[in-house]
Amino acid sequence: MRIATLKVLLAVVIAGASFPTTVGAQPRVESATLAKDVNGFELGMTLADAREKATLTYIGGDQFEATSQGISYNFGVTPKGRIYRVQSSQPLGQFVVDRSFIDTLRRKLVTKYGKPHRATGETFYWRLTEQIAQKSGEELPFVTMWMNASIGGLSQGKTLEITILDFRILWADQADVNREPSQRGAAKIQF
Which listed residue, 49, 111, 115, 169, has the most CB atoms within 10 A of its CB? Predict the structure, then answer.
């Protein structure tokens, strides 16, 4: 998924966010993947921890960018300064993607992240779907965590594009930041 498409998806989710929660009394710890990082940039990591790995540049909204060891990153950050999305683009050079390359990529991805939910050609996709309680109380299935890895690039050479995202980190921090103002607002209600 390209950055522009991802930004639109995130804007829609965030704009309509009512800070949904996973259903059940215990916090969810399930994961769509075995590992929750891209080259050490981990979901839930604080900006301070990420700054120890690379120089971060604020680019607006909830986004920061960095480059480390020739790999470009774009991070989605919660209101409490934790990373809920890691997007990376790694240049691989000029070559024709063949079966041998795809087999090697698949093997490396499976070793680190586990078996993908779906793989088609040069794209690999992991997802975790959970029942989410909406404002209305209705419970609906929602992909709360996902990752994709794909080969991109044209004339400048091939790139490995990886995005890993966990909405539960975003929602938990949004709800935490909103809790006190919401309670103050509720205390002011008069009829």
Answer: 169
pLDDT of residue 25: 38
Does 75 map to a domain?
Answer: yes
Residues 6+ apart with CB under 8 A from 40: 53
d(CA 74, CA 27): 27
Q: Which of 19, 5, 59, 22 is nearest to 133 (CA)?
A: 22
Pairwise CA distance, residues 42 & 82, whole Å = 10
Where the chain has pLDDT below 70, the residues are 1-29
Total domains in the chain come to 1
- Give a yes or no: residue 184 inside a domain: no
Q: Rounded distance, CA 158 to CA 151, Å?
A: 7
Residue 189 maps to a domain: no
Range of the domain at 117: 3-179
Strands (E), 96-174: 118-120, 123-133, 139-152, 158-166
pLDDT tens by residue, 4-47: 434 434 433 443 445 565 544 344 458 999 999 999 999 999 99
